[in-house]
Write a structure and sequence with these properties.
Length: 387
């Protein structure tokens, strides 16, 4: 078991009607608010009007149009500039993980005199950030309970994971009702995203029985409740469990005491969505079974058998290798049953840039220390197997 030093400063307010606490929450941070949101779905659902009404006594400035895979030039830079111009006290992110990720980068950029990319790329250390409050409308990334964000700079095909303790949200408001209207495709992609977050922490060299049980339960809950949510989008219990599972995905609690895994699927997927702007959860669903097949060997076999039996419900066979393979196939079949595309060609990615992307991953997300070390050649093989 590994040593750890752990703290999560985020306050979670969970449950139906929790948004009513928003005025009290915001008042603790100041009167001037940057309201950040995406393409307008919160206006269609009435959430935008609800937020504006609750905060009618505050000074609100808006940053709208934040895209999936949030863009540095299009959103982070103008957002940070707006915060400085309007002397913003606190950022309120209303939407999914992309809105919150963008808000985190803005919060740090607003407290820095240079280019925010200096912080995102770790050229200079982050020393401060504006406080962030979020109202989540989608369950997927876990950004509401972690200190990281992912920002894309399309001009250079970079998609960077930016992690710093200053980026923890101060307060996250999680009302499962606001996820009822999430499309079936986004629901499935969110479940796949959260499942991979868990898998990236489960498949590692040194684990504990406690962490294994938590990860396995998280994965089973996501699969059971993911299916229910697709059949019955307004099933509160299913949506609530998915939201809870997603919140735990990236804040480290699933892997306290575990050795590091390197998060190889995320490293590879970030290249896919940086070059082709595909949905992150879809890319992860495509890559994960192929990565598993690639690293399955005599050394990793016991881990894959545990995954097959305790997560995917595979009956143990006489041949452990066959049990492990059946577990991987069951995961693939689950993603298919959720309606997710399972080949890169289905999302517009062909052979033409695979070598370039594999090199980009090998240079920018070194996986030589991953659970199973991956070379550029290995990454390319996984990409090709995913076509």
């Amino acid at each position: 078991m590994q040593n750890f030093d752990y703290q999560t400063p985020t306050r979670l307010i969970f449950g139906e009607g929790s948004i009513e606490k928003l005025p009290e929450v915001m008042a603790a941070f100041g009167r001037r608010i940057l309201l950040a949101y995406g393409g307008g779905s919160i206006k269609k659902t009435g959430l935008y009007d609800k937020v504006r009404d609750l905060l009618k006594d505050f000074e609100i400035h808006e940053l709208s149009g934040i895209e999936p895979n949030p863009k540095y030039t299009g959103s982070v830079v103008p957002g940070a500039a707006l915060c400085k111009e309007k002397h913003i006290d606190v950022i309120l992110a209303v939407g999914g993980g992309s809105v919150l990720d963008c808000s985190k980068a803005i919060a740090a950029g607003a407290m820095y005199d240079g280019e925010p990319w200096d912080l995102i790329s770790y050229k200079v250390p982050t020393k401060a950030a504006l406080p962030i409050v979020d109202v989540m409308t989608m369950a997927a990334t876990g950004s509401e309970y972690d200190s990281g964000c992912v920002i894309s700079r399309t001009e250079t095909n970079d998609k960077v994971g930016y992690v710093d303790p200053h980026l923890f949200p101060a307060v996250s408001i999680l009302d499962p009702v606001y996820t009822f209207t999430v499309s079936l495709r986004q629901t499935a992609a969110g479940v796949a995203d959260a499942m991979n977050h868990t898998i990236e922490q489960y498949f590692t060299e040194d684990t504990t029985l406690l962490n294994d049980a938590i990860c396995e339960g998280n994965l089973r809950s996501l699969m059971v409740n993911g299916r229910i949510a697709l059949e019955h989008p307004d099933d509160y219990k299913a949506r609530a469990e998915i939201m809870q599972c997603c919140a735990y995905g990236c804040n480290g609690i699933l892997a306290l005491g575990n050795s590091r895994s390197g998060w190889p699927c995320h490293g590879m997927e970030h290249a896919l969505s940086a070059y082709y702007d595909i949905t992150h959860g879809v890319g992860l669903a495509i890559l994960t079974p192929r990565w598993m097949e690639h690293i399955l060997n005599e050394h990793t076999l016991p881990r894959f058998v545990s995954f097959a039996v305790r997560v995917m419900g595979v009956a143990p066979m006489d041949d452990d290798m066959e049990t492990a393979k059946a577990g991987i196939h069951s995961l693939y079949d689950f993603f298919v049953s959720m309606g997710l595309p399972m080949h890169l060609r289905e999302v517009g990615i062909d052979e033409s840039r695979l070598e370039e992307m594999a090199h980009h991953v090998a240079e920018g997300w070194p996986l030589d220390q991953a659970y199973v070390p991956l070379t550029e050649k290995d990454i390319l093989a996984i990409f090709r197997a995913s076509l």
